[in-house]
Write a structure and sequence with these properties.
Length: 562
């Protein structure tokens, strides 16, 4: 997260709207005392002394350039008038504004000082003021050193990524022979490197997966997505809490020697001239890190930039970044951004703070195809989803409700062929060999609840019920869902099943979209759409496991009419 140092300038007008900084806004003598934490030099300077301000500004820049460290300028000044044109500040700051009304302006003080020193006469300074105001009135530039021709050498060419929507074509297939070569490379460590016992087993299993002796799990498919993108010339940047190992120990992109503790990153060692693979574990500082990654992604269209939360709930601490920048930056400022957020989401009985990535908040923010919200349920899906994010020319944020228990679920597996020759599916049809003409009830769902529904349906042999997965909730795949529902000519009822409470999850923000498809399928037959899931709740999840299981059993049975 280095920037080479930042010059921080505090325009210290000593009052925040109506809040007195001295009395109410801080417990320290200076507002800049927080910078002592990082041992940054702090310059306090009188805003009424232009020459002192100039000197301090030059000194701060010189310090930053020489040492590549932060430096702070506390520019002590005042706000002459109110917070806005209708505000009368003396209503809340009577003593301060009694003094301010008596205070001569900075310009008047400096002009008088120059006149006293014989540098600039009063007549000359008046003429300068008159010319300045005239230039403003005429719309001319008043900054004489304004850069008229910026350095185009530092520009990033976003032209190839302008004007594309989410359905822009992107072939995510990859040569199977090269895929196996990469699979071997990312499971090989340098000679003499001693892996920890469990990590060694993970790498051994991955070598079997590459050879076709084992089904591919989530961690291996995700890592292969990064490897193939690097092989095709895209850089990859992955940051967040525990991303090296993975919060649930599924990734192990960074391995640690058991002999001397040094690390090895196979994805950095695919080829001598490969693009950069950057991976950093961050502190639990979601707002700062996510904001940094958003900025990074807006400047590097050829880099897959990913921020991963330890649990999806932790994105709560970065909600300002999500609301102000990620969801709306393109439409407010025309700034494209291909940032990907991996938010572990799923109800495994871990309680209110470790279950929900607040899918409903992201769905509420969705409009005008401003971002993508996906809930992949197989390793092949995450592989193609991540590759699609770079291979398609569209650059918009990708929000992923990523799994926890599915990382090692026996049925959440894929094959090398699905990776090499497949694609991301926005909707996945029923996988069991049911007689589709006998299906009377269709259950739509997303995420891990699919596997719980599937297990219960098989156990109770409810073969007149089909289960269909929505893998992309936004932009909504109307045509694909209509195509899938069309496979079931004798449907009587469609239900949406989710594990989140009714007032959360995807239901309220997606039901009108599902209804549009259901009604267009057979408008003359009055096909119904219903909800199955937890009751409305103020809390994201139950606080103890027994209640979690009781709730889950109830709605699974209701969905399948058991």
């Amino acid at each position: 997260y280095r920037t080479g140092g930042t010059v921080h300038i505090v325009i210290n007008n000593q009052v925040g709207f109506t809040t007195s900084f001295q009395a109410d806004a801080r417990s320290t003598e200076y507002c800049t005392d927080i910078a002592k934490m990082v041992q940054a030099p702090i310059f306090h300077v009188n805003g009424d002394d232009p020459e002192a301000v100039l000197f301090v500004s030059q000194l701060a820049v010189d310090f930053r350039q020489e040492f590549n460290k932060d430096v702070v300028i506390d520019l002590i000044c005042y706000r002459k008038r109110g917070h806005n044109e209708a505000d009368e500040p003396s209503g809340t700051q009577p003593l301060m504004y009694e003094q301010i009304k008596k205070q001569k302006s900075t310009r008047d003080l400096y002009a008088a000082a120059l006149a006293d020193q014989g540098v600039v006469s009063k007549e000359e300074s008046d003429r300068i003021e008159t010319d300045y105001r005239a230039a403003l009135d005429e719309g001319k530039h008043v900054v004489k050193s304004l850069v008229m021709e910026p350095n185009s050498g530092v520009f990033v060419d976003w032209t190839p990524y302008i004007g594309h929507d989410w359905n822009a074509p992107g072939d995510t297939r990859f040569d199977s022979k090269r895929l196996r070569e990469l699979a071997s490379n990312i499971n090989t460590v340098s000679e003499g490197f001693t892996l920890q016992r469990q990590v060694s087993k993970i790498y051994e299993d991955r070598r079997k997966m590459a050879a076709g002796a084992m089904a591919i799990n989530w961690g291996f498919a995700e890592t292969l997505a990064y490897a193939t993108l690097l092989d095709e010339g895209y850089a990859v940047r992955l940051t967040g809490q525990d991303v090296g190992r993975g919060t649930f120990s599924h990734r192990h992109a960074v391995v640690h020697s058991q002999k001397d503790g040094h690390t090895y990153i196979p994805l950095k060692n695919l080829a001598p001239d490969q693009p950069a693979f950057t991976i950093h574990d961050s502190l639990l500082s979601e707002e700062a890190v996510l904001a940094f990654e958003y900025g990074y992604a807006t400047t590097t269209p050829t880099t897959l930039v990913i921020w991963g939360a330890q649990f999806g709930d932790f994105a709560n601490g970065a909600q300002v970044v999500i609301d102000q920048f990620i969801s709306s930056g393109e439409f407010k400022w025309q700034r494209l951004c291909g940032l990907t957020m991996l938010l572990p989401h799923g109800y495994e009985g871990q309680g209110p703070e470790h279950s929900s990535a607040r899918l409903e908040r992201f769905m509420q923010l969705c409009a005008e195809h401003n971002m993508q919200v996906c809930v992949p349920s197989t390793p092949a899906q995450v592989y193609h989803m991540l590759r699609r994010q770079m291979i398609r020319p569209m650059r918009r944020p990708l929000i992923v409700m990523s799994p926890k228990s599915l990382l090692r679920h026996k049925d959440a597996v894929s094959t090398m062929e699905e990776l090499a020759d497949g694609s991301f599916q926005t909707v996945i049809d029923e996988v069991d060999n049911l007689d589709k003409t006998k299906v009377k009830r269709l259950v739509l769902c997303s995420g891990k609840v699919y596997y719980e529904l599937l297990e219960a349906r098989r156990a109770h042999e409810k073969n007149d019920i089909a289960i269909v997965r929505l893998e992309q909730l936004y932009p909504f795949p109307y045509d694909r869902l209509k195509e899938v529902i069309g496979h079931y000519p004798n449907l009587k009822k469609v239900v949406w099943c989710q594990e989140e409470p009714r007032n959360q999850g995807a239901w309220y923000n997606s039901r009108h979209r599902m209804l549009r498809v259901v009604h267009s399928f057979r408008p003359d037959r009055n096909l119904l759409l219903g909800y199955v899931g937890r009751d409305p709740s103020a809390s994201p999840a139950a606080g103890y496991t027994a209640l979690h299981i009781e709730e889950q059993t109830r709605f699974i049975h209701e969905a399948l009419r058991i």
